[in-house]
Amino acid sequence: MILDVNKPHKLIKVSSEASFIAFFLGIGLLTVSCSSPEKEAAQAQPERQGATPVDVAIARTGSLQAQLEYTGTSAPFRIVSVRSQVEGKLLDLKLDVGDSAKIGQIVGQLDDALLLTALNQATSELAALKSEIARATTQVSNARALVEQARLEVVQATNDATRQDKLLKEGAIALQSAEQARTEARTATQALRAATEQVRTEQQAVAAAQGRFSAQQAVVAQAKERRSYAQLKSPITGIVTEKVTEPGNLVQPGGEVLKIGDFSRVKVVVQVSELELAKIAVGQSVQVRLDAFPNESLIGRVARISPTADATARLVPVEVVIPNGGGKIGSGLLARVNFQSSVQQRVVVPQTAFQGTGGDSSSQNPKSKIQNNQTLFVVRDVGGKPTVTARSVRLGSRADGKVEILSGLQPGESYVVQSGKPLKDGETVRLSILSEKT
């Protein structure tokens, strides 16, 4: 570049104008760069302040009907005591508390020495009576033989007397001989009668001996049965709930040894108010929950309702029976009995979820069944922002500030319980700290 030494002032003027322009450009850029974040923040602030705060809840099922729930304690369906029927020393117990027993199973043994002695004595007497019957039978046979002999003698004597009478008529013999023959015939007849009576006497002796024999047979059978009582047997199938005595103790007739519970079914007795008794009937299905099994719901039935109420508390005992096929339900567990097990579960929401006068049902009967349509706002995530959608739902019963939803809202959906101001369909909202999270 060639500088013209004759035009120095023009060069200086150009340089001053360039410097001035560069200065103002720098200030402008600095101003723009400094004001951009503030402007963006200012623009975002109204957006955050403009979102309506709302309380959001998750739809769940429930019932508005009063739940008749009472507490009781589980117990075996029945408890049977194993008792001794004879006196004796308890030698052995084969079961302890918690052990299972089958019907007819031997659970204990008594000392049967005295019972065995009594049985042997009765058996000996029975054998003696059997011999007596044999002797009496022999006597009957002998008496019958004598009867037959006497009958033959009667025949012979009668024939002799007849011949003697004939000879007497012919004059062949003296009268004395004929009379003697007739006397012998009468004597033979009397001997026959005596022999026949002896047969009857001997037969009666046999019958008496047979009666004593039969009676002694009963004594022997009784002695055998009494000896069998020395073996203690379970009267039912169940579980031992209590051991009343210990081996070595003397047990009296009727004395308890064990208690066995039938756990095939379990019963729960609850005290029900007389005011609720009309809602309960024998055979009614009920829902039972045990604190020991919180995740399980059992179905039982009302077995009986006591005819007698507590005169002071006005409570009536109601017995509920629960099937216990697996045998896992024991005795003494806390049970909660709900007599409204058949109530249909529906989505229940608070009345504050409905905006406008249409959702205000405070003036209506709390338990009315009027069904009408109302608008409810469902919350959804649209573009990462919570947005409400107006939805028409059909209402059912109302009670205690809550409303049943018959249709239009499913369990698990999020809905607006309360908002800071009236909402519009498609409006972006801001969830409050009280909102439930899905």
TrEMBL record:
Keyword Coiled coil carried by entry: yes
Coiled coil: 119-212
InterPro entries attached to this UniProt entry: Beta-barrel_RND_2, MdtA-like_BSH, RND_pump_MFP
Name used for this protein in its record: Efflux RND transporter periplasmic adaptor subunit
Superkingdom per UniProt: Bacteria
Keyword Coiled coil attached: yes
Cellular component annotations (GO), alphabetically ordered: efflux pump complex
PROSITE patterns the UniProt entry points to: PROKAR_LIPOPROTEIN
Multidrug resistance protein MdtA-like barrel-sandwich hybrid domain boundaries: 78-254
Pfam families: Beta-barrel_RND_2, BSH_RND
GO MF terms, alphabetically ordered: efflux transmembrane transporter activity
CusB-like beta-barrel domain segment(s): 268-341
